[in-house]
Each structure stands twice: as structure tokens, then as C-alpha cells.
User: Fold this.
Amino acid sequence: MAKPTKARILTHGQVWTALDRLAERAGLSPSGLAKRSGLDPTTFNKSKRITGDGRERWPSTESVSKALAATNSSIDTFVQLIGDGARSQQSVPMLGLAQAGSGGHFDDSGFPAGKGWDEVALPAAGDEHAYALEISGDSMKPAYRDGDIIVVSPGTPIRRGDRVVLKTSDGEVLVKELKRRTTRTLELQSLNPAQADRALDADDVEWIARIVWASQ
Assistant:
């Protein structure tokens, strides 16, 4: 009879490491992440992780939830960040966002196709069709800056609030946040507050895919 597998215990260090990695993904310090989450700036500071009498202090479920919301991250992402050891990488095709709207770079399903793609090793997306786009210009600040790289996964389900890349029937490639989606329309929020939101007929969207990672 096989021996039962011993359950792995979630440790204090793993949870705090995951929060540090979450901040890093968003281009923030731990205190910057706390501020963006609407918390006291010192909430995630390393000096707060051990009490004065030497006991481990754990982040509250509420503070973790607010940090995930502030970085537009899912609980699945947080669980992945908890994992210890080296994070797996995946070699994916990469293209400049400015070139993505020109013909021949995607097939009808929104998968990379044709010539002009480079290749880059980035954290694994778990999608064989995943690809990377390099941001150019400042039109998407503060979410993405010039030179940032985003990983797009056509095979990942999309939910309201996700950041997405989509291509219109006119050949326009957009990076937006999905506010609402019905069988007839898509409502999109601009990442730059200075730019207007968009509403598109579903028939005018060739494909849409979720952004699952950003270098920042």
C-alpha cells in the first residue's frame, strides 16, 4: 500500500515572496504596491514582517486581495508567484506593437504568422500560441511604458476587467481593458486616462486575446 503524500505547508516566507514578486511585476516597491492598493505605505515593508517580539506577521487576506485588484492580477497568478525555485520560461515570438497592425503578422485566429517576428524568452504562459509585443511610445502610460514587453495568450479565457489586445476589421490593433462584453458589443476602457474609451460592435472585432504578463 502506497504511503500517503505529505502535504506541503504554505510558509510565511513564500507568501511575502509572492507579494514582493507581485510588486516587481507591476514595477513597484513593496511600499508602492501598498499605496496603490489603498493601504498604509508601510503595510508590505520588510520591517513589518516580524513583530517586535520575534513572531511572524502574515499579510491579511484583505490586503492581499487589494494588492491583486490594484495590479489587475488573479489569485491563480498569486499562487504561481508563491512557488519557490526557478520560474519556468518559454520562448515566444515577439513583435513591436507599432508593427502589429500591418498585414501578415497574424492569422484569422489571432495567432502569430508570417515573417518579421523575433524571439524572446519570458515567463511561461502555458499557451503554445502565446506571443510578446513590445510597447512603443507613451500612449499607454501609466499602465505600460515605452519599451515594456507584454505577453499575450490567445488560449486564456477573458473576463471583465482583463487587459486585452484586439484587432478590428479595419486592421487596427488596440490594447485596452475589457469593461463589458456581450454578443453584440465590446466596451473597452483606455489604459491612459487622457484617452477616450471605446465601444465596438462584436462583428467589427477579428480577434481578442488576454494579456497575461508584462515586463515593467
Observations:
- The chain has a mean pLDDT of 86.
